[in-house]
Amino acid sequence: MANTARVDSLKDIIERPTRVISYPKRADGKPLYTSEFYGENVFHLQQIAKALPKPAFASFLKQMRGRQALDRGTADAIAHAVRIWAMDRGATHFTHWFQPQTGATAEKHDAFLTLKSTFTSAGEEVTAIDAFSGSQLLQAEPDASSFPSGGMRTTFEARGYTVWDTTSPMFIQSGPHGTSVLYIPSVFISYNGDALDEKTVLLRSTEQISKACCELLSLIESVPVGAQPRTSHVFTTLGTEQEYFLIDRSLYALRPDIKTTGRTLIGNLPPKHQQLDDHYFGRVPSKVMATMSEAELELFRLGVPVKTRHNEVAPQQFELAPIFEEASLAVDHNLLTMDVLSKVAHKNKMKVLYHEKPFKGINGSGKHCNWSMSTDHGENLLDPTVKPETNYRFLLVLVSVLHAVQQHGALLRTSIASASNEHRLGACEAPPSILSIFLGQHLTEVLNSIEEGRPIKNFSMPEIQTIKLGGTVLDVKVASLPSIARDLTDRNRTSPFAFTGNKFEFRAVGSKQSPSFPVTILNAAVASALQDVTAALREQMGERPFPSDADKLAVIKKFIASTKNIRFEGDGYSDAWVEEAEKRGLPNIRTCPEAFEQLLNPTHSSMLTKLGIFSPSELTSRYFIMNERYAKDQLVEAETMRTLLAQQILPAAFEYRGSLAQTVQLLSAIDGEAQSPELEALRALTPAVRAVQASIVGVDEAIAKLHAIHDDAVAEAKAASDYIVPAMQAARAAADHLETLTADKYYPIPRYSELLWF
Question: Which positions fall inside the GS beta-grasp domain (predicted)?
């Protein structure tokens, strides 16, 4: 039966026509340019400006920048305008869209419809009207009792609030039957004002990094006390490269492990997978391209600036990358991208897998977070410019980032720790779990020359290349090709945190997780480091009103020396680096429970609470939530594996054994042959079946050890790591060996060779 379902699914993949949609067109039938419909489903700032009187709009802008509260009249005017705009586009409901600590977004839909009662002499007359007030726009009240709180509240304390994040624009998404829904990006807080979500702490961190960076810039730009600083706001920018797998939905439906956990718990690689290096940047399969294009169309309408699409390294693995945006908006857009891609894939009878390691033995998926800082004048503070060795602003910001990772690298490791990312980190295609920074040859030479007090080396090689501003030009010795501009630095894909020209790429973030928490921790660490650098600069300049170039250089030199251990230019995948990192004193945190402990490490917790990004109770809450989530994820996987092995894999093996035994018996009766090939196959199969049976017992024992722990999330997480993980590894090894011995017609679930093929 299972084999029949597999065959039918494979036939359907071959025969199913590619879904066709209508691309937006002009009246003359020509397709619209992307820029002509980009953001058409977004309620932009310009539309708010049209809806409000100038004084009210000016007041709203001040509120967006955190300088004053939003008054009721302005809120009512915006609510009325956005309701009319949304209803004209088919909206029947609105929702406050928020990011609880579940790894996903959440929403509760309310209708614009309300009832108005009028009392006359004839009695009450009820009239249906559409309405949306300023108070409904600003705040809603979802039930907070069923969301993770980490012990900050009990189940019966149900009240929580969602509050409109005015820095992220509202938008509409398609609903059922041709309708749509108005989405209001929001934060989520408890009745007592504690952050219950990912966005609140991110917004706090962006405020702190702006404050710390502006203080440093005012000092080095020699702004007199009381004068208006040139830079009044600094914001972090973010570009998230989203990797994912795309498989056929009919085959997905036949894999209970993928359906429940997001990854394969058993399975062997096919003879051909990624070893020929022919999938990366290869031709995108037509059905996948149709899915990508349809998703991009929806994202363009939602104002998400998706830019790049391509095949990734592993079969059926792909990537979608956007243009950089302000970090909080970029996080919203990444979560929206994941949601839209999943919906569109479903329409195309496919399934998106965001798990960091859905298939053992081939590359996993990450979410590379390209991070930088920009001023309110649009200046990238991590742009080294033509001569980084004399660009003291850049160098001070750069050593601040180095200092941040040096001091709080273990906390950054915490920010990317999860049960799913644990399968990817440290593997042959992912950054190691040791946090280090790659700067590249040129910047490394700049820092070394400053530290050693010598002239910088010239990187030009006249016989091959000539100097060009900001980089070099390569001569490839082919007359028909133009000169090739070469960047100042190469790329190091083995580094978890690499400088890539004018930004840092945080490569260790997992593909499934929200980028919010990792970026929050990065912002916090850099804000604290900027404060340290500013304090060192003030100490260096003494009583002078402004620091001299010599003062700046002295501070830069000091932090170059103190952060040398965190810089690594070599192969992060090598065993030699693990040994070298240990000599340098860099932490190598291998398991999630170890990583979670860093949240309560006084070095890190005091920094987070001092900056006001987390309260002590919020930090402790998150610690327990992360432990609890890890234990539950491992428990779900273990119970799913146990059920899969006991109810599908073993019965199939029993059926195959029975068939072999019957054949052996028949052959023996015919010719008396004692050593038939079938008998040899049966004898090889029997111990493999017993090994799977024994492994199920091992998984059961591990599950029992976790169940024996009550009301202690930390102990449960440690038990999951110590017992469930190795028990599942042993069970997988046994099951994968059994798969190699089981005839295909009896194997009950799609194999890797079918899942990783279109």
Answer: 92-193
Give the CA angle between residues 80, 83, 88 to the nearest 5°. 130
Count how many residues are written for the chain: 758
SS (H, E, C) 339-354: HHHHHHHHHCCEEEEC
Whether the CB-CB separation of 335 and 304 falls below 8 Å is answered with no
Residue 469 neighbours by CB distance under 10 Å:
8
Q: How many CB atoms lie within 10 A of CB 474?
A: 15
For the entire predicted model, the pTM comes to 0.93
C-beta of residue 754 within 8 angstroms of C-beta of residue 250:
no
| Residues in a beta bridge with 130 | 113
Q: Name beta bridge partners: 242.
A: 320, 367
Beta-carbon count within 10 A of 567 CB: 20
Best CA proximity match to 164, nearest among 198, 140, 181, 145: 140
d(CA 22, CA 464) in angstroms, rounded, equals 51
User: 8-17 long-range CB contacts below 8 Å, 24 or more apart?
Assistant: 8/250, 9/248, 9/250, 9/251, 9/254, 9/750, 9/754, 10/251, 10/754, 12/250, 13/248, 13/250, 13/251, 13/758, 16/349
Each residue's pLDDT tens digit, 433-490: 889 999 999 999 999 999 999 898 875 444 333 333 345 565 556 666 666 555 656 6
